[in-house]
Amino acid sequence: MLDNEGRLDVVFGHLHEGVLVEDETRHVKFANKAFTDIFIPGLDPALLVGGDCDATAVDTAPMFKDGQKWLDATRAVVASKRPMSNDVWETVDGRWLQRDYRPRVNDDVVFEHIWLYRDVTLEHASRTVAGLDASNGERTGFRNWSDAIERLGKRAKSIGALEKGAMACVKVRQLDVLNAEFGYEVSDSILIALLEELRGEFGQVNVERLKGTVFGVLTTDANAHELMSRIHQLLDPTRAIGDQFVYLNTVIGVATTENIQDFTDGQEMFECARQAVREAGHRHADVVLEAEMRIQSRLQNELVTRLDEALGAGEFQLYYQPIVRLVDGEVLGHEALLRWHHPERGLLTAGDFIIAAEEVGVISRIDRWVIHEACREVSQVLQDRDCFVAINLSPMSSDGGDELLEVLRNSMAAFNVGPTQISIEITETAIARDQLEFVRLITQIRAMGVNVSIDDFGVGASTLATLKDIPFDRLKLDRSFTAAIDEPRVQEIIRVAQVIGEILGGQVIAEGVETQAQSDLLQECGVHIGQGWHLGMPAPL
């Protein structure tokens, strides 16, 4: 088992943010390499351990442009014993450093001070780049999702009679990581450059930027493999950001007139290309549309066309899976899981249709139905019991967040459901998709007294620096960690997740508990709440 310093290294050692951890007397317990790279390049972080942080702060102040103000602010925030985030300071050498502070408090006594520093010089400089405005559609190419599809669809239909015609969806991956590292404006500038390069090669009217990191490309003079080759040759994956270089991982999905000679409209051709790029994302390699993939795409489209009808026909139902205390099996809450009793295909889980529902824009109706139905059923069963029901929100929910808040508020009032009886779950990946909007949404939900859980924690794109800005009450550890809990390294990661949850003020819940052995090991790792088939199967009310 790792000692305290070893655990701190597992938690903070890999972060790009500079981390300094002080004990209750403000002496250094831990520093990572990113911290010394910012303040004392080349110094072994271990040499800082035991040093007097207050005295060091006095020595450090001259490196800031307004050193006395920085020092006064440092002492004031320590005295306040309250978390502080995102104050930014200019150094005398022209850098801009963003700082965050989080105390760990017990009985009003701070027993650990955690500081995070991040060099945001590039982000600060990017704000002054002439012409960079993500809201300017002509500049970014990101005007309107449905309009862009329609434009490409019309172009695709016009080439349908040609012997050679291909549509590619080009997806740039790991942009969430770039957003966290460099900020949205810098990563958006990269996407703008990619758009211009593609349009320069294939023509202005044949390239659209779709939904953030996906580009649509049409050509009439290349087959699938020629098109993929031209795109990869054009888009240099190595991009310079200041004096740093990043590598862009790009995957391509292609549909051709050769493969879909019977397509009826441009929308279908586009859907086929999008199906191919989804598969490319799963395979981590380029994909040309295959017959089986097209069948699956049509099945999804058929499902989507019946969603509205199904909602009105009462084909949807909520199943509930218990969330329990591992030591004694006491049920603390339930997660509401959506099921569809399809008249031809039988019982479908959410994974069979939710992605398609998100992509065609009907997911908000499903979210509204789930919120209303969960509140109705909670009022029938829980009443005054100290128990909650967790409701999942789609990654697309921030697009209609205010409307969902109103549905939640009205449903709770209509069925006399108290705020402690409802919990909202949002995936870590969804938050990374639009952090600012989701933080606003989460803040408003919690202001209603409703708890918020971050779902699938550990497999998304959050760093500790972004996670600390997200108000939450529970972290749901992704089931992949529980499945591999026999591995000692995974056990240490789970212990670290428990520490992170404690530091940031939330409980940790393990998903995917399927055996008693897993339950026992989770408790040894400090996790005392779980969910999974061993603890209870999903079932109707």
From TrEMBL:
The record's annotation in InterPro entries points to:
Cyclic-di-GMP_PDE-like, EAL_dom, EAL_sf, GGDEF_dom, Nucleotide_cyclase, PAS-like_dom_sf, Rev_trsase/Diguanyl_cyclase
Gene3D superfamilies, A to Z: 3.30.70.270, EAL domain, PAS domain
Q: Which Pfam families match?
A: EAL (PF00563), GGDEF (PF00990)
Q: Which residues cross the membrane?
A: none
**Domain EAL spans what residues?**
300-541
Single Gene Ontology MF annotation: cyclic-guanylate-specific phosphodiesterase activity
In Swiss-Prot or TrEMBL terms, this protein is called Unannotated protein
What organism is recorded for this protein?
freshwater metagenome
Lineage summary:
unclassified sequences, metagenomes, ecological metagenomes
